[in-house]
Structure formats: structure tokens, C-alpha cells
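Per-record layout

source: Jonesia denitrificans
name: 4-hydroxy-tetrahydrodipicolinate reductase
length: 251
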Amino acid sequence: MIKVAVLGARGRMGTQVCDAVTAASDMELVAQLDQGDLVNELSADNVDVAVDFTIPAHTENNVHALIDAGIHAVVGTTGWTDASLVRVEQRLETVGNRTGVLIAPNFGLSAVLAMSFARQAARFFESVEVIEYHHPDKVDAPSGTARHTAAQIAAARRDAGLAPSPDATTDGFEARGADVDGVRVHAVRLRGLVAHEEILLGNPGEQLTIRQDSFDRSSFMPGVLLAVRAVQERPGLTVGLEHIMNLGDIS
């Protein structure tokens, strides 16, 4: 049995994770932490994996505490930067206890597949833009999923030797969305949405649209459980669920 702790256990995602872990035949929910509870009181003697769905202001400190304790971490909280990821890698190297940390911008299997398809397709199109749609209670924009998608698209385009997407805009750049590694990303916040993404790719005379929709947070639970089962075998930092989905050539 994998002994699992959930951080942010009373939040929207944390509640679903607790239910999913409880229902899994190979897992045991051993701790539920929320605001005011101390992560550094968890022990590797009692916890194998901790799942973090807290808030961006707390998640990095939580991960450092888990690394220090030798507890593997699965992290769904977004808001990570290149600098904060580097700090996690440095902490892992300093502690040197073979702890695994898996940070996933999105645990939806369909979302991960959409990102992989987009990365593959981006080599063949002159233009590409990303639109992400979320509920208005989300605190970060663009979403971690959209940033991850754009960064992977940009890397694929650089590897293919493609020029930047054409754009003759001279005024009103604030309407063109965020620039993530040269890829424009647009964020919509609207009541009634959960989590949705479109990747638009264009050539003269043709367009490819890749769209993914998460209508309920239960859609993320298979990916969370997949990560909990895999993280113990992946010491160090892993960013993105695609690395444990055996996507082969499309990744």
C-alpha cells in the first residue's frame, strides 16, 4: 500500500484527491493537511507520497519540506517559474536522498495528449497561438498548462529551425496576450468554465485546432493516481505528466 498525504485537503481539488486515494485499492490516505497544518511534521516513516494542491504562495516551501523529510511529492499547484524549479533541483541535489518530485501543469490525460499533439504539429505550421479558458477563481494567468504548452511548442519550433510566427502588430500589443517563449497565449476567465485549452496552428489556406475540455475536476484524478504510483521510481525533478505516460514518438 502506498501511504499518501494530501496537502490542501479541504480545497476543491484536494477533496477530490482524498476521495480518489481512498477509493484506490493500492493506496491508503494517512494524512489530510490544510491551512494551519505544518508540512514539516510529516515523516517518511508514515508517508510515502504527498500530493500538493495548495496555492502558489505556499507550494514551493511545501516541496522543500517534503524533500527534507524524504517524502516523494506530486504537485498540481501551478505558478511555478524557471527560478523556482531550479531551486527545487538544487534542494534535491543538496539533500541527496533520492526523493522524487513530479510537478504537473495538468493531470488531465486528455490535456497532456493535447500538449503532445501540439508539440508534434508545431513543426509544420507557420503560425501558432494558445487560448486557455478557466473559471474566474483561478489566481494565475496564463495557466500553468498554457505556459507549459507554449514552452514545448516553442522548443519544437526552434528545433525545427522555424522563424517566429508572423505578426505585423505595431500598436495595441496588450491585446495580443502574453508572450511565452515567443508564443502568444490568451487567458479567458469566465463563470461556468472549469479548465479548457485551444491550440491554433495555421498555414496559408489551412488551420488545425487542437482543443481539450475538462468539465469536472474528477477528470484529473486518473492522472493524479498515475503520478502517485510512478513518482517513487523517479528520483529528482520531473515536470509534466507526459514523462510517465509512455507517449513514444508523439512526445
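summary: The chain has a mean pLDDT of 94. The CA atoms of residues 126 and 192 lie 33 Å apart.
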